[in-house]
Amino acid sequence: MNPGTEKPHYRAWFESLDDSEERYGLDEIVYTDRNGGLLQVVHDMEELKKSSAAEWKSLFASRRGGSQWPYGSGVWCMKEWILPEIHSDNVVSMYEGNTNLFWAERFGRELGVEDLWLKLCGNSHTGSFKDLGMTVLVSMVKELIERGEDIPAVACASTGDTSAALAAYAAAAGIPSVVFLPKGKISMAQLIQPVANGAMVFALDTDFDGCMELVRQVAEKDGVYLANSMNSLRVEGQKTIAIEIVQQFEWEVPDWLVIPGGNLGNVSALAKGLDMMFEMGLINRRPRICLAQAESANPLYLSYLKDFEVFEPIAARATVASAIQIGNPVSVKKAIDALRRYDGVVEQASEAEIMEACARADRTGLFNCPHTGVAIAATTKLVERGLIKSSDRVVVISTAHGLKFVDFKLNYHNMTVADMVPDHPNPPIELPADYQQVRDRMLSEIDRRAKT
């Protein structure tokens, strides 16, 4: 296989989840099947299997992090498994992916897990894993426009991170973008990202689900291209998280993957990456998956308690994990299917548990967003229940950079969180600029902290 060669004989298409005979080209503007169900991207696996697992591993490794466009990207180094027929000139990439695994050795020891890792997906251009899916979607839109499609803009509903990724990639491609945000329910750092990148930003008096209903309407009635995760092109980029993790472990599969979930496209993407590796022979076993939800926005957790026999949307309540404050996730069917295939569990975390998990992990060198805190809190519970063993290799998917969510950390450490006394506060110590006072306080603090 030649790393620089286009492979037009590799094919992929949209397909109904319920009817494999219902298919559409990836260059068709379609988001659901005839019955309103979600679509999935399906690859010509028989064609892909003509190359061996060893050849694919070698090809991906030879491209990753290099300078040959666009293959250095952590997504586009796997181009044949993503959008095989797109022309490389239409790829819109910021060399997303290739994010590091953080060996949380000290934190793992505290939890009783010998081999705990965090996949820092927030170490990306816009600070979240959403870049991985958006590079694929915006690249496809650019190709459609090049072919003459009349697409006036690309739009999304968002609780913050999706809008940041869409605005940045659309700006790089020169494509207008529109984002619908729930007013007052995202961090200032998240709000300023699409504003700075030139998106048309609507802050609406509703929640995410209300924004989602509006973006569906403008997509249907006004020809604006829909960029939310119900568009399964996004999953194609996000599935590379799973592939990249296994590649970083020299193609050894972890025992557990723990991921926070709101709209639930991420867990189905994780499973899809694992599915492809398993079917292609790159791996020979499957990990277990834990999907973590905030207690204030936990419809999948409630369904899990009933063995997924019933799923009922809820009115999501306010949570510090604002990006997953979603009560009616569009990818629920895909998520349930993924969890069933991967012997999955669903866990929840209260607001106090989220903040304490972040603070405790931050004390060991991390700097977690609240959504990662949900996943860490869930991991802690699974360890305490004995479901995760001390010898298991566990990877927590950190979905965004902590710098996008500093307000909740400031409130925690300043001890201004309502109805909560923090366990690990560390407020700044305010003193006069006097050596003796500073010295005395410093030495007493060193002594106190050595005893805790």
Short recap of the structure:
With 452 residues, the protein is an alpha/beta fold. 39% of the residues lie in helices and 14% in strands. Strand 10 (256-260), helix 11 and strand 11 form a beta-alpha-beta unit.
Report what the structure shows.
The chain is α/β, with parallel strands linked by helices and 452 residues long. It is built from 17 helices and 13 strands. It has a domain of 207 residues: Rossmann fold (3-Layer(aba) Sandwich), CATH 3.40.50. The strands form 3 sheets. A 6-stranded mixed beta sheet has the order 4-5-13-10-11-12, with helices on both faces. A 4-stranded parallel beta sheet has the order 8-7-6-9, with helices on both faces. A 3-stranded antiparallel beta sheet has the order 2-1-3. Strand 10, helix 11 and strand 11 form a beta-alpha-beta unit. The longest helix is centred in the first third of the chain and has 17 residues. The chain starts with 11 loop residues before the first strand and ends with a helix.
What is the number of beta strands? Answer: 13
The pLDDT mean sits at 95
CATH C-level label of the domain at 101-127 and 234-413: Alpha Beta
Q: What are the segments in which pLDDT stays under 50 over at least 5 consecutive residues?
A: none
CATH-level-2 architecture of the domain at 101-127 and 234-413: 3-Layer(aba) Sandwich
What's the N-to-C terminus distance?
57 Å
Please state the structural category: alpha/beta
Q: What's the shape?
A: globular
- Spatial order of the strands forming the largest sheet: 4-5-13-10-11-12
What letter string, H or E per element, gives the SSE order? Answer: EEEHHHEHEHEHEHEHEHHEHEHHEHHEHH
Per the CATH scheme, the topology name of the domain at 101-127 and 234-413 is Rossmann fold
Q: Considering DSSP H and I runs of 4 or more, what fraction of the residues is helical? A: 25-40%
For the sheet with most strands, the description reads: 6 strands, mixed
- Percent of sequence in beta strands: 5-15%
Q: Report Rg.
A: 22 Å
Total number of helices: 17
